[in-house]
Design goal:
A hairpin with a 4-residue loop joins strand 4 (68-74) and strand 5 (79-84). The protein is an alpha+beta fold and 452 residues long. The protein has 14 helices and 23 strands.
Length: 452
């Protein structure tokens, strides 16, 4: 008996240093580099650090309370009421009120809001719409609906999140975020996060290699190279839909011509050559793992059928633009070649140029792992205000089939999102949409005396 007790005490004593080593440390500054704008929508890395939504999604995709503690629907989902969490304050110490939330939401999505109207009622928000809004709690967890106040000077966003914008951001030419010690969720582990935007992927990786930064981006087309270079890569499931948005005006108001376009694109070449076989080829709006029926949407190229649908008509030249970096531009060039094989004259143009654009190659973020809410978030991001009310997989498939067969949005590939981190980064997870969740990160090399 004494021998067993001694062994037990020895095991406990040996375990204590291990626990001390693995316990998150408080303090330190995390350095992050990105290719674009840290504030861009959707999923700019700075946004969820400063702002919160009314709801959030848990690791399993379930909707959880955030700035709203509870909600209820009435009138067959035409009316929703969300009650705010009491005692929450913005980072400028002003109180979170229903009026402030109403103002933020009204300015966030304009005509593409899932609701027709939102009103502050006491300490709650009431959303109403002519069509049912069954997915509203999940949609409100999305990036577009984060709650913030605009303040001067830019980018003076004031939120309720775990980090606030430092006054040094503008002076030093990058975003410096400092811990919000009064955050309703509790203070973060880090003292600060410094985010440098407009850094090329090559420069990001060089800085990571020499210890000048802690987290960098890994585009899907460079995932294989990152792993070959033995970077510590954290990747999401396929959450980024590469799709072709098609205008419904002019010559493309003809549904047969839109269908001919969809059949002319060689998805396999895009996947194999440009995106290095990462992700999955798709003609469905949702990835296969969410529905199980994605295989029912054929992905093969069919030039003969494309020519048949075109019916000998030679449309006027079409314009094609790509949103994003070099890989997206290469993909647009290849799609243009595909379409020329089918008898279309296509010119690749600058997306920012003031001109009519017939086709736009875009990346649309899947913001929810719930199929109905995920599909609706994809469609709204593409500018298609469609409410998804399907209750069963069969109903969802029927709804998706009708949308895909309209060929206003042509799904091509589902790609993962990924980042690479230095050895001192601990407890990094990716959100449902693939964004790094930096609020829960700690650093392993913070001196012990910095811990409270």
């Amino acid at each position: 008996m004494l021998r067993q007790a001694a062994i037990s005490l020895l095991i406990t004593a040996l375990a204590l240093p291990v626990a001390a080593r693995t316990r998150p440390h408080y303090g330190g500054t995390l350095h992050v580099e990105v290719e674009g704008d840290p504030w861009q929508r959707p999923s700019g890395v700075a946004r969820r650090l400063v702002m919160d939504g009314l709801t959030t999604l848990g690791p399993d995709g379930a909707v959880q309370p955030a700035l709203a503690v509870r909600w209820a629907s009435e009138s067959d989902n035409h009316r929703w009421q969300f009650w705010l969490r009491p005692g929450v304050r913005f980072q400028n110490d002003s109180a979170l009120t229903a009026v402030a939330v109403e103002s933020s939401l009204t300015g966030s999505c304009g005509a593409l809001c899932p609701w027709s109207a939102v009103h502050a009622v006491g300490s709650s928000l009431v959303f109403t719409a002519d069509s049912p809004m069954p997915n509203l709690p999940a949609l409100l967890a999305g990036d577009r609906y984060l709650i913030g106040l605009d303040a001067d000077p830019p980018p003076g966003i004031v939120g309720t999140g775990p980090f606030a914008i430092s006054g040094e951001s503008k002076i030093r030419g990058h975003v410096r975020l400092i811990a919000n010690e009064n955050c309703w969720r509790g203070p973060p582990f880090l003292d600060a996060i410094e985010i440098t935007g407009s850094r090329s992927i090559r420069d990001q990786w060089l800085d990571l290699g020499v210890g000048r930064t802690d987290l960098v981006e890994v585009p899907a087309d460079e995932l294989r190279q990152a792993r070959e270079q033995r970077l510590t890569v954290i990747a999401s499931p396929p959450v980024s839909l590469l799709a072709l948005s098609v205008s419904n005006s002019g010559v493309l108001s003809n549904p047969n011509l839109r269908a001919a376009l969809a059949l002319a694109v060689d998805r396999s070449a895009l996947s194999n050559v440009i995106f290095q076989k990462q992700g999955e080829i798709t003609a469905s709006l949702l990835p296969a793992e969410l529905t199980g029926y994605a295989f029912l949407f054929p992905t093969d190229r069919d030039l003969n059928k494309s020519h048949e649908l075109r019916g000998g008509v030679t449309p006027p030249p079409l314009t094609l633009a790509a949103e994003g970096g070099a890989a997206m531009q290469l993909a647009a060039q290849r799609i243009a070649l595909n379409l020329r094989d089918a008898g279309f004259s296509v010119q690749v143009v600058n997306a920012a140029a003031p001109q009519h654009i017939d086709l736009t190659l875009r990346r649309l973020t899947l913001e929810s792992s719930q199929p109905q809410a995920g599909m609706e978030s994809i469609l709204r991001a593409a500018g298609l205000a469609v409410s998804i009310s399907a209750l069963t997989p069969a109903e969802l498939y029927k709804t998706e089939r009708e949308i895909v067969d309209a060929h206003l949005l042509i799904p091509l590939l589902y790609l993962p999102r990924a980042c690479a981190v230095s050895g001192r980064v601990r407890d990094l997870r990716l959100g449902a949409e693939g964004t790094p969740l930096l609020a829960g990160v700690s650093l392993s090399d913070v001196p012990p005396e910095a811990a409270p």
